[in-house]
Write a structure and sequence with these properties.
This protein is α/β, with parallel strands linked by helices and 326 residues long. It contains eleven helices and 13 strands. The protein has two domains: 172 residues, 3-Layer(aba) Sandwich (Peroxisomal Thiolase, Chain A, domain 1); 139 residues, Peroxisomal Thiolase, Chain A, domain 1. It has a five-stranded mixed beta sheet, with helices on both faces. The protein has a four-stranded mixed beta sheet with strand order 8-13-12-11, with helices on both faces. Strands 2-3 form a two-stranded antiparallel ribbon. It binds acetyl coenzyme *A (ACO).
Length: 326
Amino acid sequence: MIRAKIIGTGHFLPARVMTNDDWAKRVDTSDEWIVTRTGIRERHIASDSEATSDLVCEASKQALDAAQVDKNSLDLIIVGTISGDTAYPSTANWVQKKMGIKPIPSFDIGAACSGFLYGLILANSFIKTGVAKRILVAGAEIMTKIINWEDRNTCVLFGDGAGAVVLEATEGDTGIISTCWGADGNLGELLYQPAGGSAIPASIESVQKRLHTVHMKGNEVFKHAVLRMQEAAVEAIRLAGITSDDISLYIPHQANIRIIEATIKRAKIPIEKTYINIDKIANISSATIPIALDQAFRENRIKPGDNVLLSSFGAGFTWAGVVVRF
Ligand code: ACO
């Protein structure tokens, strides 16, 4: 059977680090509130000159190096992002140009925090059906350029960064074992960026009202996040034909430590088998899972034969679950 195997991973975080105390100097918040409610302690912030594609290029170079394959052996680039360089072309196209990759199909996925897993699921299908053999999938965000820096309800939650993987067609037992995904557009307005698209084009008024930034009803989103993250995790395990005991490592989307704790309780996954880095990087939407995956590799937390579970929840709402056997 042909499977999509992850043969290399990489990640990049901008140099500047902003702590909770730094935020407390700008808005009415505190380190104590942010840590207790979210688990976040600090986040990386991109510079004015950095665009999302720059972060993807750095993460992708690492992933290609780790995979020991040439950039021009890729036949597809997919980037999950909601904070791309430009409305169009896609960030994937800017990456292709900046990395000097030959003309190959390249596109973005706008599934918010599920963007990377949606990309992985699509790439898996392309590989299984022979559409492509070697694919670069990245998740990348500069969330700090699309948040309202005066809204304490949202500004403290997000950070910037990118993660990338190289997937290759392989025969055998390793690779992506199961996938599931879903979306519910009825709940879109609980977490969205109202302006800047065709519904409310950019205008002086839309900018003055900060309508081009993240708007979120946090406590409503929280309830759905717990439910869907857990459902996606359980379904991906079931479809893999294994049990939660067979999971060696769980990498959840990092939006809130309380969401992660509630999810693992329901999915029966111990905290020791759960990868948590939200304290250091905050919520980087589509980038959190590929960043954590690469960090877990480099910390030797993933070994041959391990079943690694990934699950996400994000704006849309969107959710997804994937089991990968290494
Ligand atoms: N500092 C201090 N107080 C704050 C802050 C802050 N930074 N932010 C909010 N508060 C206050 C609120 O004003 C409110 O005060 P009030 O009771 O006087 O009105 C109080 O804290 C409680 O607010 P809640 O929103 O109810 O707080 P909650 O415990 O729900 O935590 C949070 C908020 C962290 C946002 C949480 O709801 C959450 O994590 N939601 C889910 C986020 C998520 O998963 N998003 C999906 C992925 S993101 C994406 O797709 C782009």
